[in-house]
Amino acid sequence: MPVPILLVAGFLGAGKTTVVNHLLAHAQGKRIAAVVNDFGAINIDAELIAGASDGVVSLSNGCICCTLEGDLLRTLATLLRRDPRPEFIVIETSGIADPADIVRNLMDPVIWKEAPLETVLCVVDATQPVTALDDALLRSQLRAADVVALSKVDLADAAACAAIRDAIRAVRPAAVIVDALHGEVPASLLFPADLDHVPAPRETAPRRPATDRFETLSWTSERPVRLPRLQQAIGRLAPKLARAKGLFETVEQPGRLTVFQLAGGRATLAAGGVPAPGVPRTRLVFIAEMGALSRAEIDEIMQGCVDG
Fold this sequence. Notes:
Low-confidence stretches: 39-53
Helix content: 10-25%
Number of helices: 8
CATH architecture of the largest domain: 3-Layer(aba) Sandwich
Mean pLDDT: 84
């Protein structure tokens, strides 16, 4: 029986991970395989994790999660050979990915026969200005979408939400637009009710020349950071960042990790787990436009978080 694929797209920090996490946490008996291709993309509550091997995390609710290593088609083939086989596959794209390229790969006849693309979901941050939809990459993500999920609607006023809905309809009139408070999207919009249903193949646009628009720079430390200094450092770096995330241990709370996220100019901190042995105490990833930041600048600013 074919295994339907849900492709989740959206710009950096839009809230894709929150949507995928909600799907996994509310699988309601469905065996869902989540494929992620972004650093720290799935932050699953520790109590859900039953074990891990070969880049695959098995969850206690019957779902699994794996990182995208190497070729997408090879990763899907590996998942389809699992026993028991997943009933659905969710692919979370990188925030800088054009879903049209992934759709083109999924039209491969061998993959289509076993795992047809059912739905493309694009997650859009409701708090961003309407002018953000002028971005060519975000417009491409929207044009591929069957369903558009508005995230962070609780942080935006009604007028802003209405304006961005109108802008989305102008780009993609055929898409269904839903509010996704805390990542909740109705499963009926994403997965077929009839598992024997096979969707029709999609038309694909010609491949566009690849352009490197963003780059990822990481910073690690074997020592815990001082939280006030880290906050100052992030404040200095934030104007040049499109996205940042990671884990760190602080001097103020030794032996505990904190999860850090920066998206849409907003930074959030959440309690993490216990540091694993042999892993740096601090692991941060910074995503910026090409040339906006240098590794030397990051090293200089971040080193102040541990010195003294």
